[in-house]
Design brief:
By secondary structure, the chain is α/β, with parallel strands linked by helices. It has a single domain, classed as TIM Barrel, CATH 3.20.20.370. It has 8 helices and 10 strands. It is globular, with a radius of gyration of 20 Å. It binds zinc ion. Zinc ion binds next to β5.
Length: 274
């Protein structure tokens, strides 16, 4: 008789690994709570690059938009959430930083699917500094510096179309934990003023650079008159919001497949630690 123990052991190890990697048993977060998704770039990955998790290819992004449409999701903005708009299966697509592919790749696809999105734009994004080194000095590879950023004309067209809502992401993508009180105010409140003057639209939502923030930063955000602020803490915040300046997001990773994407949408997480 064939000895089945090695096979059973192999299957057992696989199930254990799969369960650990994908926390598929996590319960579904109520669909009455809007999902806020975090994107950066819509472009193909670069072989061997460090930041490929924030590069979602256009094909994958289109599959996601179609999936939302096929499953009855509605696309809201952060301003909608601030107003308390109630809608089952709501999703808010957010884009951080202001990469040029948001215009060349994401914008046409959003129009095609009748979707909307929020753009957290770095106000002074053409000053030639490498933002990623603000978090960790060893990230000084210039990888993100080389990625083209949105021009002011592109931003204007995106915002004027009504497809994009504009949000603030500080002036220089500063690491707030290293900034003085005065710098925090200038970066947070100053970026709102800059964007509002430049693009003549209200800017009511804020994204903490690198997802780094503390209660003092949040108080400055509040003082600046923002009605919502998003972090990079994973998950789905219960709605209506108790603390609208500390909202969680679902990270859309260019390194993950459809299974992980759907799991994150349903549970707010992909695994025990992500
Ligand atoms: Zn950022």
């Amino acid at each position: 008789m064939l000895n089945s123990w090695p096979w059973l052991a192999a299957v057992g190890i696989f199930v254990a690994w799969f369960s650990y990697r994908y926390a598929w048993w996590s319960s579904t977060v109520s669909w009455a709570y809007p999902r806020i998704l975090m994107y950066h770039m819509i472009r193909p990955p670069i072989r061997g690059a460090r930041f490929n998790s924030i590069r979602v290819s256009p094909e994958v992004f289109e599959w996601q938009l179609k999936w939302f449409t096929d499953h009855g999701f509605v696309f809201l903005t952060m301003a909608d959430l601030a107003k308390g708009v109630r809608q089952e299966r709501a999703v808010v697509l957010t884009f951080d930083d202001g990469f040029e592919d948001n215009y060349t790749a994401a914008f046409p696809l959003l129009k095609k699917y009748g979707a909307r999105a929020t753009l957290y734009l770095v106000a002074e994004r053409h000053d030639g500094r490498d933002w990623s080194t603000q978090k960790k000095a060893h990230h000084d590879t210039g990888e993100l510096l080389k990625e083209p950023k949105l021009s002011d004309e592109q931003v204007r067209e995106m915002v004027d179309s009504g497809v994009f809502e504009l949000g603030a992401h500080t002036k220089t993508h500063v690491n707030l934990s290293k900034a003085s009180g005065e710098e925090k105010r200038s970066e947070i409140i100053g970026s709102k003023k800059l964007l509002e003057e430049q693009f003549t639209v209200p800017v009511t939502s804020f994204a903490y650079p690198f997802g780094i923030w503390d209660p003092q930063d949040r108080d400055v955000v509040k003082e600046g008159g923002f009605s919502t602020a998003v972090t990079t803490d994973r998950g789905v915040t219960p709605y209506p919001y108790e603390n609208p300046l500390e909202l969680r997001r679902i990270k859309v990773s260019g390194r993950e497949g459809k299974f992980a994407f759907r799991l994150r949408l349903r549970t707010g997480r992909r695994s025990l630690w992500k």
